[in-house]
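Recap from last week: sequence in, structure out.
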Amino acid sequence: MAPALLCEAYSGARGTDFTRIWLVNFMSLLVGMTDDSGESIASNVQGLDEGSPGNPIPPVDPAAAAHILSRDQKRRAHYKSRCNKAFSLFYQHITDTGYRERLNAFVLDAATQVPPTNARNGPVALACAIEWFAQPNNAIQLQAQNTEWTNLSLHVIGICDKTPRQMYARILTLNSERSPAQQFNQAGIATKFLSSFTFPEALMQRALDEMTNPVIGLHIADLMLRTNMIVTHFQSLWEAYFKQGAITPAPPRAAPSLQNHRVDGFECDTQDSNPAPHAPGRSKWSMDSDEYAYEAKFTSGPRSGEIICWKCFGSGHTSRSCPSAAIKRDRNEHMKRLAQSGQGNVQVTRTKKPPPRHRPPATGPRGRFATPPNKPKFSVRLVDAEPVSSEESGCLLYTSDAADE
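Predicted structure tokens:
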């Protein structure tokens, strides 16, 4: 009889549906699965449990007391059991044939190495899953990934006793979604993790000291192991400050909007089967026409609601405010590529532009030295104060008999 599944098995498409939705829910279920030692399966998958390379079990002298040797054997047996359990759970819950074949091949390759290694563990299963279900990136995705990487903070994760480990897991997820050429190395991952500690003051200072003068794991050549040791160390410090009340719990905050980037030169020019007569071999203008204005936005997916610029095909602004230069592109092909990059549907609306407002042509001379138009002239004679209306000039004239003499 097949074992009961924790959640619905995954065999869907590549991209954020796996890394942002299914994998996050699956890992949250693994957090609640603990063994007799108190370690969870999720910590084994992240490489942070006792016995993992980031948190190794210290060696015990063979001449030690029997109860010490027995305790050491139990700790190592628990770690091995967690590794097998995590590996089996990933294999059961991801039914994609290609993923399973790749995972089996990786295990066989590790077993044939000299010396042989056991790859049946959670970190290997997770790494293979992320690599298999990653989606190829393009310019639009890279812009969004850079913005999300920059805006990631502890407040976006949420403040609780496990925030550092959750932060490290999010960093690994964001880094795994990038193309291999754009991924950060272990030094960049460790720097991002340490720079996220902006409070409390004492923990922030410890993080700054570790970045400027590294101390943790200096004797270890493997940078991944050093990063895991840094995460374990700061997790223990965070929990101590959390118990003391120096850290106040808080729910996750919404990350800043990604609607602020342009995609200049996003190449989607294609050879049309029926080239436009005004541009042989190239597509028609995908810009606003004189009579109609176009607006596009995502209607589904993780970027639902974002407005897409019709000129540069970036998001967060319209073509009227876009400083990009005009480019000839195939509109249908461009929208198809854009929908694929945003993992969602794109809706295009066309509205008729209002007729332009024309100013009446200016009359009279123009230029800097043009003379102003003639103004009505008034004649005034200063006399005794008896006003008399003058119909000829249209103004009031002051006159008297004495002025004529």
